[in-house]
Amino acid sequence: MTIKTIEDVLFPGIGVRVGKVEESSGELVVEAVSIGRPGRCPDCRSSARRVHSSYHRQLVERPLGPRQVVVRLKVRRFFCDRKSCPRRTFAEQVAGFTERHQRISVGLKQRLYAVAVELGGRPGARLCRKVQMQAGRTLLLGLLQAPPVPARAPRVLGVDDFALRRRTRYATVLVDVEASRVVDVLPDRTAEVLADWLTQHPGAEVICRDRASACSKAIRQAAPHALEVADRWHLLQNLSNALEKTCHQHRSCLRKHAEQEARPFPPKIEPLQDLPRTAMVERTRHRYEDIHRLLEEGQSVNGIARHLNLDPRTVDKYKKTPLDDLLASAANRRPNTGLSPFKPYLHLRLGQLGSQAVGARLFRELCERGFRGHVRTVERYLARFSIGEAETVHAPMPSPSTIAAWVTRLRETLTDEEENQLLRVRLACPDITRACDLTWAFLDITRNLRGTLLQEWIHQVVQDAPKPMRGFANGLLQDLDPVTAGLTLPWSSGIVEGHVNRIKTLKRAMYGRASFKLLRTRILTHP
Questions:
Q1: How does DSSP assign 50-82, residue by residue?
Q2: Angstrom distances, CA of residue 230 to CA of 173, 224, 423, 496
Q3: Contact, 160 vs 173, CB < 8 A?
Q4: Under the phi-then-psi rule, with left for phi > 0, alpha for psi from -120 to 50, and beta for the rest, what region is 286?
Q5: CA–CA separation, 441 vs 109, rounded Å?
Q6: Coil, strand or helix: which one is 28?
Q7: Cα–Cα distance between 267 and 513 in angstroms, integer?
Q8: Which run of H or of E encompasses 27?
Q9: What per-residue confidence (pLDDT) applies to 381?
Q10: What is the DSSP string of 420-444?
């Protein structure tokens, strides 16, 4: 395309003629006049034939380089000659350039709208200042308009709730699962609100939901012919919670098994070195001397506390407790040095080496196994046995949540150490073993979409499973058809959860403090 005139540069394809361009106070002021065909009446849509008058409009246009552009546009006002129309005159609008009641051009408005959609209010206003576009946060947010909601619901509808204010107010997001697009946002998560929306927007054939009873009630009430699909992720979460409760109820079995596998350290070995004088021991000794010196001078407990900047209860403890007991307590206080996971190996090597054990040698062996502490930490720990402080180290006992995570993960992703610990857990308690076997069977049904085997699995659980697992199975029976559909059909709420995470990101950008109307508009307009 060959550029011939200045209009082709400033207003390509727009019916205006540029009269004059001048610079004023760092701005480019463009004098222009409309030369398009007469417009139509906004009420009756009849074509205009007579000109009433003309006037100038001032509009802000997109910046040109580092300069802002202001257009003084001369437009016409026309008569409406149709007698039945209540409007007598109307101003013309230049297609692609002006809109009614707007002081910015259509092109600038589109650009500001894109900024508002991506960044929002204050961040968008900061960007506009840097690129020479005059727009405040109020103008940017005012450009956001929620798109119209389709009259019919999508064929596959996803439903989930999110918190407007945690534990206080909630809203519901509706997603077209096939198109991965938010359809609407409702101001509450009650069954009545969702049922009213489904009644006004029929057409949903498949509805993916979590296991909330309010959602199920609304579907049965307003869309009884739709197929409900329970989300697989929520099913696995409920199963993991049941397995974790089972492990928590049988922690005594795990503890007993760990005590049986414990390796007692030899009662006493040859002294490796003298017990080090730690900073805590020295501080305790000096504090004891200072407190008793002031007591001999006749000062009170409160007076000593003010003088030494201590708590009066601390001063009273040093007053009544013998020095040897205070020093012993200070010597036994150890910071968290990260040595605990390595103590079983350290005790094993001490049992093998006996009097030949050297702190530096054992320190190097621990470093090869991931220890990140200091050699003095190992030496101080070894020195405790020179005074007869024997210790029994138990094999590390995994927490119930850790056990549940191992069981629900893919077996090939577990390390050898995790496999061995999981085997010890299963050997410790038959109930935990049964719960693990049932969990693996349910995971196989879920991952391979074998929902036809669900009732058989529930029957096995009801017969001899631990109580938390039976509670999970009874919950499945109350929601059997949607759960079976969720374990058979390819539909799930994964796309809906993704949009919920996107909504949380918008809330962190201060939209969580905005009104629900603005938050809804932002959700529906954000790509």
A1: SEEEEEEEEEEEEEETTEEEEEEEEEEEEE---
A2: 16, 15, 33, 13
A3: yes
A4: alpha
A5: 58
A6: strand
A7: 64
A8: strand 27-34
A9: 75
A10: HHHHHHHHH-HHHHHHHHHHHHHHH
CA distance 284 to 274: 19
Helix (H) or strand (E) holding 160: strand 156-165
Q: Which residue reads 């007469």 in tokens? A: 38
Structure tokens at 291: 């407190």
d(CA 48, CA 82): 10
Q: 81 and 36 in contact (C-beta within 8 Å)? A: no
CA distances from residue 304 to 63, 220, 290, 297, 313 in whole angstroms, order as listed: 73, 74, 9, 11, 11
Q: In whole angstroms, how far apart are CA 49 and each of 16, 22, 137? A: 19, 34, 42
CA distances 499 to 29, 192, 326, 339, 347, Å, are 45, 23, 59, 44, 52
Give the other-Cβ count within 10 Å of 240's Cβ: 17
Q: What span, in angstroms and rounded, lies between the C-alpha atoms of 140 and 192? A: 34
* Alpha-helix residue ranges (DSSP H) falling in 66-190: 106-119, 122-130, 137-143
Taking 70 as the threshold, does the pLDDT of residue 77 lie above it?
A: yes
Q: How many whole angstroms from its chain centre is CA 251?
A: 31
pLDDT of 418 higher than 60: yes
Q: What are phi and psi of 506, to 5 degrees?
A: -65, -40
| Sign of CA pseudo-dihedral 53, 54, 57, 61 | positive
Rg (CA), the chain: 38
Cα–Cα–Cα angle for 208, 210, 212, rounded to 5 degrees: 125
**Which of 94, 124, 116 is closest to 106 using CA atoms?**
94
Tell me the backbone φ, ψ of residue 450, rounded to 5 degrees. Answer: -105, 60
Q: What is the pLDDT of residues 172-228, one digit of tens each?
A: 999 999 999 999 999 999 999 999 999 999 999 999 998 888 899 999 999 999 999
What's the rounded Cα separation, in Å, for the pair 447 and 177?
A: 20
Residue spans of beta strands (DSSP E) within 215-276: 227-230, 263-264
CB-CB contact of 140 with 125 (8 Å) = yes
With 80 as the cut, is the pLDDT of residue 394 above it?
A: no
Q: What pairs with residue 90 in β-bridges?
A: 78
Confidence of residue 64 (pLDDT cuts 50, 70, 90): confident
Of 200-214, 236-250, 498-512, the least confident:
498-512
> In terms of pLDDT, which residue wins out, 338 or 298?
298
For residues 281 and 474, give the distance between their C-alpha atoms in angstroms, rounded to a whole number. 59
Q: What is the pTM assigned to this prediction?
A: 0.63
CA dihedral 262, 266, 269, 275 (to 10 degrees): 40
Residue 254: CB atoms within 10 A of its CB come to: 21
What's the half-sphere exposure (Cβ side, CA atoms, 13 Å) at 368? 8
Q: Phi then psi for 323, rounded to 5 degrees?
A: -65, -40
pLDDT of 266 strictly over 60: no
Alpha helices in 448-493 (DSSP H): 454-464, 467-478, 480-486
